[in-house]
Amino acid sequence: MDRAEVLHQEELLSQRMVLLCSGVLLCLILLQSLSRGMHVLWWLPLVLHLVALYTVHQWCRNVRPYWLSLTALSGLWGSIAFLAWHAGGLNSPLLAGWPLVVTGATVLLGKPQGLFALGFSALAAVLLLQVAGIEVAPQHAGLVLILSLLTYFLMALSILQMYRMSVQQIRAQQVQHLKIQQAMEISEARNQAILDALPDVVFRVTRDSTILDVNIGEQTRWAIRASTLLGQKVTQFVQDETRLAEALSWVLSGDGMQTQELQLCHPELGQRSVESRMVAVGEDHALLFWRDITERKKIEFDRLDRLRRMEGLDRFMLILAQPEMEHPALLQAMTHHTAEILQGFCVVEIFPSERLTSDCTNESPTPDWHRCDLPLVLHGIKRGVVTVWRSPQTGPFSAEEQSTLQTLVDRTGLTLTNRELDLRNRAQAEELRKANEELEVRIRERTHELARANEQLQELTIRDGLTGIFNRRHFDERLEQEVRRLPRSEKPLGLLLCDIDFFKRYNDHYGHPQGDLCLKQVARLLQDTFRRAGDVVARYGGEEFAVILPNTSLEQLSHLSQRLREQLLQLALPHAFSEVAPHVTLSVGGVQATREDAITAQGLIQAADQAMYCSKHSGRNRGTLRPWVVQEAELPSKPFS
């Protein structure tokens, strides 16, 4: 509520108070005149009352409601008191003033205060009736005056309270209105600051795209006064007027915000790209936000162009990584990808006469075209030149494009160099492979020869040179192994020692060559007799032979000795100078040991040797077999006859 409205309300309140008080007094005077006749003194309260109200209305403008209310009520109850004093008694028509007073309180104060005045008046009337009866004597007029004054005083308090409440409400409304106005000013200033800070141009347009308001932000860089755009059509600034008009129609029809990119014909900046956002503000108005995105579109275009170059470069790198690509195909691929990546005309010249071209422009270069030349270097030597032309419409080569071209040429030169080196390395590797194969063949042959020689040497180290059976050294090694194995085996171990009877006489009479032949035949006979796996037949020394028989019991030793006798008898080697038989015979000594026996190799040989000498002492051409635990006992001799 503004100040003018407050003054208007105060004016209405003053007029109502004057009219109410004047009407009450006139009614009372008329009633009294009709009852008792007209008296000039009765008009005195009305005149004084009207003069007081007019004076207050003219001289107390700043506090008019308060003083007017006080004056009206004071004059009212003073006038009624004056009239009641002269009239006196309950028979006076002054009693008709009570309903008028109640009605005035209701009009001024409201319904609750009017009901209060009515109740209080009724209470006063009841008291007067009980005290004075029906007829009120003049001496009771003072009591009537006191009750009237009390009633008017309460009415005055009610009206003053109403006034204070009205004033407080008016002041509160003024403060609230001031706060709202300040908030609106702050909000408007803030919104204006936001609009100024935005890099947007904001239009408020009508349905036919007429510009009603415009705000040009400080960051828009539009050197145009906003006032020059008012009243113009916003569609006249864009190339595609139809799209903008359709979007405006959709927004005003309730389709929500519309966003689109437009090409703007700026009167000073020329062709610009703007992002247009449009929202409705009512049924016939819309807000347009235009943001200049020309620089952003340029950055996006540069980014896409850079991405295209990088993708082309990646494809070319994949081609370079193919080992089966020959030099001509590789150079042609480099020419094609260079022209594609840089959007130009590429020529590659390889000294002395090779020339490759590739065109992505469908035009022939002219002198005004931009040109870029780079050398093609192989093995540190300039082997060619890569030349790229580009039309003036495309623009000159940027530093990044020159770097890309340099990368293409350098990678191509490096790849060609590596291919040549790879071919040389492959040729050298093939030569080395063939040489290695030949060397490996020679090494395998030599290794095989060495293996055979080692085998022969090994055989020579373990074989007897005359008879071909194992020698004494190998016999001792195998006997040690069998003795160490015997405690872990459940099978017994047998050992035979054989000596040719009267062999010295055989050599003396038949000669040493014949003696050597006799030794060979006896050795072959022993090998044929003892052929089990693990059996070891060895020449122990001179005409003595030894046989190691693993897993052989005493009965098996006896059986093998008997078979040896039979085969030697069948061989029938003549020995005319033997004392026991006309053919060659053997004296055999054997011993058998088990895992329970604490034997050694030397002890086992000594036991077998004792058994063999026992056969010799018993007449030769026989065998003596003993278990290890009964070395002193002698088995019966069995002559080989």
TrEMBL record:
It comes from Deinococcus cellulosilyticus (strain DSM 18568 / NBRC 106333 / KACC 11606 / 5516J-15). Residues 491-628 form the GGDEF domain. One of its GO terms (cellular component) is plasma membrane. Residues 418-463 form a coiled coil. PANTHER family: DIGUANYLATE CYCLASE DGCM-RELATED (PTHR45138:SF9), REGULATORY COMPONENTS OF SENSORY TRANSDUCTION SYSTEM (PTHR45138). The keyword Amino-acid biosynthesis does not apply. The keyword Transmembrane applies. GO terms for molecular function: diguanylate cyclase activity. It comes from the Bacteria. GO terms for biological process: cell adhesion involved in single-species biofilm formation; negative regulation of bacterial-type flagellum-dependent cell motility. This is GGDEF domain-containing protein. InterPro entries: Diguanylate_Cyclase (IPR050469), GGDEF_dom (IPR000160), Nucleotide_cyclase (IPR029787), PAS-like_dom_sf (IPR035965), PAS_4 (IPR013656), Rev_trsase/Diguanyl_cyclase (IPR043128). Keywords: Coiled coil, Membrane, Transmembrane, Transmembrane helix. The chain crosses the membrane at residues 12-34, 40-59, 66-87, 115-134, 140-163. NCBIfam families: GGDEF.
